[in-house]
Amino acid sequence: MGKRRVKNTYEHYCNKLQDGRGCGQGVDYIPWHSGHEFASNGAYVRMKGFTVPREYVFFSHLESDVFRIYDHTPGVTDIKEQYPLPLSDTLTIADKLGIRHPYKDSFYNVVTTDLLIRKDGNWIGRAIKSSADLKKKRIVEKLNIECEWFRQNRIQWRIVTEKEINREFVTNLKWLYEDGEDYTSLVPDPEARQLYERELLNLYKEEAFSFSEILEIIEEAFSIGNGTSMAVFKHLVRTKQICIDMEKQFNLKNPRQPLERRGERYGRYSSYAPANHPGS
Questions:
Q1: Domain carrying residue 125
Q2: pLDDT value at position 32?
């Protein structure tokens, strides 16, 4: 039996403000929405962040995929999901644009941005929607409100759809960050981790051995369990000490392929502005 949906009321809104929803930085940030507020028949994805090591909550697989991309993007230092825009601001914007502000049950819905990202010292906003959603008038109206708020606050804002996502890249990110046992659990000793990383990196750079041979050498030399050296390798890729082409299917027999620098290749999202936006 699914959980009962929490009704949207003024009291509920005040409680969320009091609880610090939408506030905090880094690991202390609390998203505006939590999973129990929605019916259980929708997508609900919980995952651990790498850039900021806390649990994240998403309400579509597309949201979680875009998050994975930014969580791996160089220059990103913080990511906030379900970031609330001030209600007083969005009410004023909706009135200015002649748009009905989101409202449900007995109170206004807070307009949220799917992702607010700190990249290269600047905040950027990302609204994540399917291309089919952009054909729906009401969704476009809500995006107008969101877009105008970011315009007024001089924060870069864009919409991301599934058309901008490299599926191979996302699959590789899942393998890199989510498949297999946690690295620190496999090797709890920080000094041991540094030793294994240094030795594997040296062997990898020399190119005297095949990749499979490198994994075997590390595990035999230090008498560590099967699969531990692969966890070491993944850590070196995650921390950008080893670069491989993330846009192509991994060839684990020979992953020595230089990662081409293409700017924000994985986030080269559409600069789409919703229809009828004043600045469009």
A1: 10-165
A2: 95
Sequence-distant contacts of 46-50: CB under 8 A, at least 24 apart: 47/178, 49/79, 50/177, 50/238
Whichever domain contains 39, its CATH number is 3.40.1350.10
Task: Tell me which residue of 154, 168, 150, 8 sits closest to 83, measured CA to CA.
Answer: 150
Name 107's bridge partners: 104
Task: Return mean pLDDT, the chain.
Answer: 86
Is residue 136 in some structural domain?
Answer: yes
Same domain, 190 and 206: yes
Verify that 83 and 194 share a domain, yes or no: no
In order, the DSSP letters of 55-117 are: EEEESSHHHHHHHHHHHHSTTEEEEEEEEEPPHHHHHHHHHHHT-PPPEETTEEPPPEEEEEE
Please check whether residue 277 lies inside any domain of the structure.
no
CA angle 213, 218, 220 (to 5 degrees): 90
Please name which of 136, 26, 157 lies closest in space to residue 85, comparing C-alpha atoms: 157
- 71: which 2 tokens? 């969580």
Q: Is pLDDT of 263 > 90?
A: no
CATH of the domain at 180: 1.10.10
> What Rg do the C-alpha atoms of the chain give, in angstroms?
22
What is the rounded distance in angstroms from the CA atom of residue 144 to the CA atom of residue 211?
Answer: 50
- Residue 175: pLDDT over 80: yes
> Domain tally for the chain?
2
Q: Please check whether residue 82 is in contact with residue 114, taking contact to mean a CB–CB distance below 8 angstroms.
A: yes
Closest CA to 178 of 64, 94, 79, 83: 64
Structure token pair of residue 54 = 């806390």
Query: To 5 degrees, how large is the angle CA 51–CA 52–CA 55?
Result: 125
